[in-house]
Each structure stands twice: as C-alpha cells, then as structure tokens.
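Project outcomes to date are best conveyed with an example. Our students and postdoctoral researchers have been running inverse folding experiments weekly, and each run begins with a structure described purely in tokens. The record below, which covers 372 residues, was selected by the lab manager from last quarter's runs and is presented without edits.
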C-alpha cells in the first residue's frame, strides 16, 4: 500500500485546525459572551438586549477571512503555477456573503428599553415600538434560548436569551408583573421531551445545510462547475439536516429509556402521571420529580427510584454524576454541571421554588458549560 504524504499532511492540518484554532476560538467566544453579560448594566430602567460583541465580531472576521483566503490562493496559484482559477474567487465571494448574512441575522435584532418604552428591531431592520403597559405576557424557551413578548395574542418581538442584558429584560418583566411562561405549553410526554431536547440541534444542522446550499446555488450562477454541484443540495439536507439529527437522538434517548425503566420498576405510566398533574412544558422540579433538559439530554428521575446521587465531576465526555437506584443499579448521568448540582440538591434537600429568572440563568450556564 502506497502512503500519500500529501493526504497525511492534509489530515494532520485538519485535526490541528480543530484542536488549535476552532476549539479554542469557540471557547473564547463563549467566555467573552459570558463576560459581556456579567459586566452589563444592572439597570432595569435603561438597557439594550443584543448579541454579545465577541460573537458578532468573530463571525464578521470569519466572513472577511474566507474572502481573503480564497483571494490569496487564487493569486498564489496564478503567479506560481500560471493557473488563474476564477472559481476560487467566486467561492470566496459566496462564503463571505454567507458569513455576512449570518452576521446580519445575529447583529441586527435588538431591544432597547428606555423607561416604559420598548423599541424593537428585527433581523430585517423593521422597527416597532410599544410600552410595558401594552405587553400582556411573555414566554421563555430555554432550549431555543429565546424570549418572546406578546401584545394580546399578537407576538410583538423575539430576542435571544444569549443576548447581553437578557436577564435584565426578564427581571423587568417580573417587576412589571407580566407573566413569563414556558414557551412549550403542551402536555409533558416522553416524545415531547425527546423532541424539545433535539430540536435546537435539528435547526442548527438544517441551517448549515441551507447555508451550504445557498453557496452552491451562488456558484452555479457564476461558474460552470457550480451547476454540477446543484445535485448535492438534496443530499445536504438528507445527511446534514436529516441523518445527523437522527444520530444525535442517542443523547436524549438515554434519558427517555431511563424513564421507561422507572415506569416498569415502580409500576406507573409517565404520560398518565403527568396528565393527572396537569404538567406542561419541559421542566418539572417538585417533591416527587426532577425533570430537566440539559445539553440535549433528558434528566428525569422520580425520588422513590433513587438511593444516592454523587457530586458531579468532569470527564472527557462532559460533566457527569453517578446515580444509584434503590435496586442497586448505578447510572452515569451526563448534563451541564449546574443541572447535576440541582439534581443532587433536589435529592438531598428537596425541591426549591425556581423563578423564570433562575431557569434563564441555568440555561445560560448550561450553554457556556457545553461550549467551553
């Protein structure tokens, strides 16, 4: 077997890029975003909710870097080899445009609060204005990291929970006496929990497939080779948008299977018990149950099923703790450190009242733990 040194070098460079560039850069962005949120103003009277500057800056820099990288390769190849491949330039244009489109989607939306006034700007730059007196309710989606404000039955605006001063907005809504409910208001079921856990990843993967498809469409318009690449578009959505989310189902499935074991050992029906309680949404912490979604995993235990919950620890696969059932079986539970701490605290000290602001803070901490 002939070993191609070029292939080995290419593989090495790919791994090195992930280990030494992509990973540390993603962690830095997450830390900077968390730092911006912690250093933001504490005022509830005047503040602005928008994505952290670090995230917006990195995406803009990546868009410019794509353009410059392809232009550099184009010039180098032309000068040194005499081959001026114009398709490289168009590919750089396409990637840069895709990056700037993502930058715009993250950078343009914002909410400005000035006293009683609320000024909203959506991703298309459309501005709307109202007052807290006109806001009748709000919803919080901790998995999608989104806050929605409503005027009556009409949605006024949406903003990312990851934005700077998003907790100020929730605190102000609480101060104004405006109800903030769970965005997922359907009955709690095992299928519903599984879908809620995997939904953000499904949207991300389909968004990636859409971006790649738009790049291919752009190349098809301006280059000859791009037209042939259009055949890849259905496969992008099939594999990236469909197959990858299915593979990621193994993350919430473990928690769902654990609920099934509890049903069999304790002799109850999860759906019937949740229905009798009138439980909705994706979170339940009371004297009997601890149910949370964390890092695309479902953590759900009934108190009379457990004997011991250890303190969480770090591992190569993420934060985890060990749960011992009354039957003596030991289960490794993977989730964000904050969720595992809440599980142990719930088991040892009982349920504590958790406000919407507490849930939002846990969701932000979960995101930071997952990325970093």
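After processing, the design step wrote out the following sequence:
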């Amino acid at each position: 077997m002939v070993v191609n040194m070029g292939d080995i070098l290419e593989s090495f460079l790919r791994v090195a890029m992930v280990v030494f560039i992509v990973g540390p850069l993603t962690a830095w962005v997450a830390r900077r975003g968390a730092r911006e949120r912690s250093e933001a103003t504490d005022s509830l009277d005047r503040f602005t909710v928008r994505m952290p500057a670090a995230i917006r800056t990195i995406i803009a820099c990546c868009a410019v870097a794509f353009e410059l990288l392809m232009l550099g390769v184009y010039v180098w190849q032309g000068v040194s080899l005499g081959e001026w491949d114009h398709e490289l330039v168009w590919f750089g244009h396409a990637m840069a445009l895709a990056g700037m489109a993502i930058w715009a989607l993250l950078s343009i939306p914002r909410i400005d609060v000035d006293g009683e006034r609320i000024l909203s700007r959506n991703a298309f730059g459309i501005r709307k204005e109202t007052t807290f007196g006109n806001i009748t309710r709000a919803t919080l989606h901790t998995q999608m990291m989104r806050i929605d404000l409503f005027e009556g039955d009409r949605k006024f605006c949406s903003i990312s929970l990851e934005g700077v001063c998003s907790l100020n907005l929730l605190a102000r809504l609480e101060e104004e006496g405006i109800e903030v409910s769970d965005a997922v208001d359907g009955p709690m079921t095992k299928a519903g929990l599984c879908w809620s856990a995997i939904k953000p990843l499904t949207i991300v993967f389909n968004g990636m497939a859409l971006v790649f498809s738009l790049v291919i469409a752009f190349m098809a318009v301006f280059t000859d080779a791009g037209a042939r690449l259009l055949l890849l578009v259905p496969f992008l959505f099939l594999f990236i948008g469909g197959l990858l989310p299915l593979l990621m189902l193994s993350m919430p499935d473990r928690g769902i299977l654990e609920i099934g074991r509890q049903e069999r050992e304790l002799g109850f029906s999860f759906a019937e018990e949740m229905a009798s309680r009138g439980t909705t949404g994706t979170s339940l912490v009371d004297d009997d149950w601890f149910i949370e979604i964390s890092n695309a995993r479902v953590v759900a235990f009934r108190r009379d099923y457990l004997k011991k919950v250890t303190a969480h620890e770090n591992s190569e696969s993420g934060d985890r703790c060990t749960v011992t059932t009354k039957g003596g079986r030991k289960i490794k539970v993977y989730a964000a450190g904050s969720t595992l701490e809440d599980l142990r605290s719930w088991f040892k000290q009982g349920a504590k009242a958790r406000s919407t602001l507490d849930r939002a803070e846990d969701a932000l901490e979960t995101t930071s733990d997952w990325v970093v």
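The radius of gyration is 24 Å. The longest strand covers residues 154-160. The training component of this project remains on track.
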